[in-house]
UniProtKB/TrEMBL annotation:
It holds the Pfam family N1221. Its main location: cytoplasm. Residues 43-341 form the Far11/STRP N-terminal domain. Keywords: Cytoplasm, Phosphoprotein. This is Striatin-interacting protein 1 homolog. It comes from the Eukaryota. Belongs to the STRIP family. It comes from Betta splendens. The keyword Phosphoprotein applies. Residues 356-370 have a biased composition (Acidic residues). It is found in: Cytoplasm.
């Protein structure tokens, strides 16, 4: 496709060349550009609804790579061989519940055999059951019905704990690890046992977490019991998620390159999602915690507000259009007088005078040529009305801004401090009530600020932690609710830094912007076939499979990180800060920016899937003949759900890492994130735009006046869509421009607080002996049972003679 910033021959045109064009041709040229620009940006709003997961069928199909296709028939064969030895005249779907249960128990007993080949056959038979005994089904809905039935049956007879034990055996299988390390190329065959086990476990977790209103009461009970067991240290004395994290680090260390990492990450994500809860549960936990802490309720339901937002900016008024045309005329006039002035309107780094590489960066992907701007919020034309949505999805708001403004206690203190020093000449520290001597308008301002004061759960937790640190003796024992989040944090605490580094290593290897390097980890072990493709069609199919494989890994990691950050933040702010800090130390911020430094529209509209090969479609229908044309065409979806989901998750992670952290915000500025983020605004999806605008808002004051001047539409979009913090001088940065930032000092202070919290709450072995209570009761001290060593007991008579009878004791002195 020709660049939109092109000159008709596909060559890019920069601003200086544009200024040298004759007047008439330049007018035609910009008009043509405008048409192209409109053609690109008039793409409709993406009808994407953000949720914890995609549709159930999509989540099931993403478990399998297309290379695994032949294994469906193999699983069926293993099941039928086993089944026919016991039941010869009926099909599985014709048996009654007692016969189903008896056969499931037989399979479970057979799993405990020593011979590996026999065990693998039985595991495949169980996998076929978990896949819904598809050969006896005629439709996808029927497959899904039998999947639910069979999986609840398998769980009820105790299959999951047997699978966890087998998985542990495979993880510790040193022979498989050493042979995989020595192999020059790892393929699907190296991970067969692991893949079968992980497939069954994933299908069980994914199916059971789906809440169906038509479920039987006993199934609902099984689901809640399984949720509790999965999140508690029941299996192997640790939550299942901790065991899977261990697999991730072992894989990244190079000791087990054959681990099927996509399946491990998908199971890890679904285990965390099931045990801790998704975004709806997070909101209800937040509401409950605020009630318990005596804080006022939330000003709005953030999920509903975001779902009701529209992607594009409202149409410009006629007066705005006239003003913009006048501005454009002035720009063209300036360009003829002094060509270099046009560079000011280019999006450039405020800290760099001139860099040809930046120019290339900004002009590629038809991004930043002034007249050819394709981002809807930046264009000068009137936008067409967005696609109407069904009324049931919309929340009706009064006219105005979507979010209620918020103010922190600290903001009120700062405002009063500056007002007092200005009008009275003295300050009162953190006193926010005394307004004596201040003029009337200041009283009104303070009243308005206090009306919108918002105290977060995090601030309350920090102040409570400070109290515990100040008064370790009189503060009393802290009551820690042993919820699933707390159990998971305790499980991953000892190795959390390694887990974060491992996840980011895999994310880097799976990112589309990463170049293949010899030292990077091989994440394709569970997608590459034993024999590499020999025809063009096979190569194309494998190419699609590899790209899809990487996209699914990015989706799983982004979801894992976001869920953990959100749950830890609610459970205790310092748990969140501990994880966030290790992500920052492992270069998560530049990694996410590197991920977005690509043509994000083409990533979101990528068609790396072959729908006829997706499970359960492929096992129910006759497969059509695949051709190169059908593979190239892909599906007819407007966008790729998983890629848009991943992008939103990564932006949310970036927001979580940088919010209220001055040093990390400055990292965004130093890594030149503004042009990268602004390109991401081309995606016409409200939620994604909101998180991009949030990231631009925090750094706007540091980007310089020229950037703000040439990005006024982005500034107004921030004003319309992002929550207002009263007193936040985000758009001008009058006194903060020169504020120094010391990354090390800020992070060290935070780290000290985190370490104090972790050692106080979790490190019982190193607690200060000075603070331990002393037992002064003679009876309880003498009544304590003391375990004496065996050699002492044998020589007790000798010790008694030497230490007691042989020494004279003055009882009078002792009693006095």
């Amino acid at each position: 496709m020709m660049d939109v910033g092109g000159n008709g021959s596909g060559l890019p045109v920069n601003n200086k060349q544009k200024a040298m064009l004759p007047n008439k041709s330049r007018g035609d040229f910009t008009r043509n550009l405008r048409k192209d620009s409109e053609g690109l940006s008039e793409s409709p709003d993406l009808e994407f609804e953000y949720a914890d997961t995609d549709k159930w069928a999509a989540e099931l199909s993403e478990l399998y790579s297309y290379t695994e296709g032949p294994e469906f028939a193999l699983n069926r064969k293993c099941f039928e061989e086993e089944f026919r030895t016991h039941v010869s005249d009926k099909r599985w779907t014709e048996l009654d519940a007692a016969q189903h249960r008896a056969h499931a128990m037989r399979l479970l007993d057979s799993l405990e055999v020593i011979a590996r080949e026999k065990r693998l056959k039985v595991a495949r038979a169980i996998l076929y059951m978990a896949q819904g005994t598809f050969a006896e089904c005629s439709s996808e809905a029927e497959v899904q019905h039998w999947m639910r039935y069979n999986i609840f049956l398998l769980l009820d007879v105790g299959t999951f704990s047997a699978l966890v034990e087998l998985l542990n055996m495979e993880i510790d299988n040193s022979a498989a690890c050493s042979s995989a390390v020595r192999k020059p190329a790892i393929s699907l065959a190296d991970s067969t046992d692991l893949r079968v086990l992980l497939n069954i476990m994933y299908l069980m977790v994914e199916t059971i977490q789906q809440d169906d209103p038509a479920d039987r009461p006993e199934w609902k009970l099984i689901r809640e019991t399984f949720r509790a067991e999965l999140g508690s240290p029941l299996y192997n004395n640790e939550p299942v998620s901790v065991m899977l994290f261990g697999m991730v680090t072992k894989f990244c260390s190079g000791h087990a390159p054959h681990f099927p990492m996509k399946k491990v990450l998908l199971l890890l994500w679904k285990s965390i999602l099931f045990t801790l809860g998704g975004f709806e549960q997070l909101l209800s936990i937040k509401v409950r915690k605020r009630e318990e802490l005596g804080l006022p309720p939330l000003p709005e339901d953030s999920i509903r507000v975001i779902r009701s937002m529209r992607a594009a900016s409202p149409p410009a008024s006629a007066s705005d259009l006239i003003e913009q045309q006048q501005k454009r005329a002035r720009r063209e006039h300036k360009a003829l007088i002094k060509q270099d002035n046009l560079d000011a309107f280019n999006e450039k780094d405020p800290y760099k005078a001139d860099d040809s590489r930046d120019d290339e960066d900004d002009n590629d992907d038809n991004d930043n040529s002034i007249e050819a701007e394709t981002f809807p919020l930046e264009r000068d034309e009137v936008m067409p009305p967005p696609i109407p949505h069904p009324p049931s999805e919309r929340v009706s708001f009064p006219k105005g801004l979507p979010w209620a403004p918020k103010v922190r206690e600290k903001d009120i203190e700062n405002f009063l401090e500056s007002s007092r020093s200005k009008f009275i000449g003295y300050t009162l520290g953190s006193d926010t009530d005394t307004v004596v001597g201040l003029p009337r308008p200041i009283h009104e301002s303070i009243k308005t600020l206090k009306q919108h004061k918002y105290v977060s759960i995090a601030e309350t937790q920090i102040s409570k932690e400070e109290e515990f640190q100040k008064t370790p003796l009189s503060g009393g024992e802290e009551e820690v609710e042993m919820c699933a989040t707390e159990l998971l944090y305790q499980g991953i605490l000892p190795s959390l830094p390694q887990y974060m580094i491992a996840l980011l290593k895999i994310l880097l290897a799976a990112a589309p912007t990463s170049k293949a390097k010899t030292d990077s980890i091989n994440i394709l072990a569970d997608v590459l076939p034993e024999e590499m493709p020999t025809t063009v069609l096979q190569s194309m199919k494998l190419g699609v499979d590899v790209n899809r494989h990487k996209e699914i890994i990015v989706k799983a990691i982004s979801a894992i990180l976001l869920l953990l950050l959100k749950h830890f933040k609610l459970n205790h702010i310092y748990q969140f800060e501990y994880m966030a800090q290790h992500l920052v130390f492992a270069n998560c911020i530049p990694l996410i920016l590197k991920f977005f430094n690509q043509n994000i529209m083409s990533y979101i509209t990528a068609k790396n899937s072959i729908s006829v090969l997706d499970f359960p479609y492929c096992v129910v229908h006759e497969l059509p003949e695949l051709t190169a044309e059908s593979l190239e065409a892909g599906d007819n979806n407007q966008f790729c759900w998983r890629n848009l989901f991943s992008c939103i998750n990564l932006l949310r992670i970036l927001n979580k890492l940088t919010k209220w952290k001055h040093s990390r915000t400055m990292m965004l500025v130093v890594f030149k994130s503004a042009p990268i983020l602004k390109r991401a605004l081309k995606v016409k999806q409200a939620m994604m735009q909101l998180y991009v605008l949030k990231l631009l808002k925090v750094q706007t004051k540091y980007l310089g006046r020229q950037w703000r001047k040439s990005n006024m539409k982005t500034m107004s979009a921030i004003y319309q869509k992002v929550r207002h913090r009263l007193n936040d001088d985000w758009a001008y940065g009058n006194d903060l421009d020169a504020r120094p930032w010391d990354f090390q000092a800020e992070e060290c202070a935070l780290r000290a607080n985190i370490e104090r919290f972790n050692s106080r709450r979790y490190d019982k072995s190193h607690s200060n002996p000075e603070f331990l209570p002393v037992d002064n009761c003679l009876q309880s001290v003498l009544g304590q049972r003391v375990d004496l060593p065996e050699d002492f007991q044998m020589n007790y008579d000798l010790w008694l003679e030497r230490e007691v009878f042989a020494k004279p004791i003055s009882w009078e002195e002792l009693l006095q």
